[in-house]
Amino acid sequence: MGAYILRRLLLVIPTLLGMMIINFTLTQFVPGGPIEQIIAQVQGQGDVTAGFTGGGGDAADMLGSNDSAYAGARGLPPEFIEKLEKEFGFDKPPLERFGLMLWNYVRLDFGDSYFRSVSVIDLVLEKMPVSITLGLWSTLIAYLVSIPLGIRKAVKDGSSFDNWTSGVIIVAYAIPGFLVAILLLVLFAGGSYWQFFPLRGLTSDNFNQLSWAGKALDYLWHIALPVLASTISAFATLTLLTKNSFLDEIKKQYVMTARAKGQSERRVLYGHVFRNAMLIVIAGFPGVFISVFFAGSLIIETIFSLDGLGRLGFEAAVARDYPVIFGTLFIFGLMQLVVGIVSDLMYVFVDPRIDFEKREG
Fold this sequence. Notes:
By secondary structure, this protein is an all-alpha fold. It is 72% helix and 0% strand. The chain folds into two domains: 35-106, no CATH class; 120-360, MetI-like fold, CATH 1.10.3720.10.
């Protein structure tokens, strides 16, 4: 097992490198980089470039015209553009910039945001609790509901209970999470009907003044609708996965043998079937968490005005804040690769009979 883990860890390096190369290359062809963002702001604020040119003189003489390669830069002084390029590091060739970025990442230096004047690490640490809250609660609730329901559906396979619950699950899976979020807001957050839950945020304005119990209740009150909206798709997938796993195990010979020996149905189900059937479900917990963590955070956080990683990534992409984009991409990619290894270890922990080294051989 040690050799297998070592091989997986060594594969992390080329995987991250390939991911960063592809995304860095794509950004070289995407219009509207950070310099264009600054130029657009400058052009919309009138003669704000006087500070860069020393002031004085007629504005038309001062700005003049140039043949800058940046969209919207015509009329801005070349000194201003050169200063922006130097500030953002675009005065260097792309290959040199990429190599410098990788060297900084090796030293865990992800740089500072272009527009927030805050380090990328500080931004990620600041926003991460919100996204972890959504991902962790959604995953836990999905497991707590899906496992008992999936087992019940497997035992009652083909019954009316199995049929109507399957219908509900399929409908829930087919509805996008953002539509569920909007529906919950309209119904229960002061939209057109009731106002049982707050419209936005993770805590109330007077959160620090509340007692310990009051803080817990306030937190649960705010997180209820976002968690419910982000749980729908994971809940449907896990339920059907649990059901199919149990059905596959129930049909095997050892189950028939246990029943022939006179063991009760409960003993057969939870003493023999459960461990084997739950292998893929339990071992997949890290992967499900990461899936919910990344897939649902952007839209859910935006709709419920939660200041988490999904919203940070969206705003960084719109503003072309490259340090935040590449830094979070590197961190999240590393997290996903490590979680993949943890998932394999979970398989071995749940069932020691699994040997990945023999399977690879």
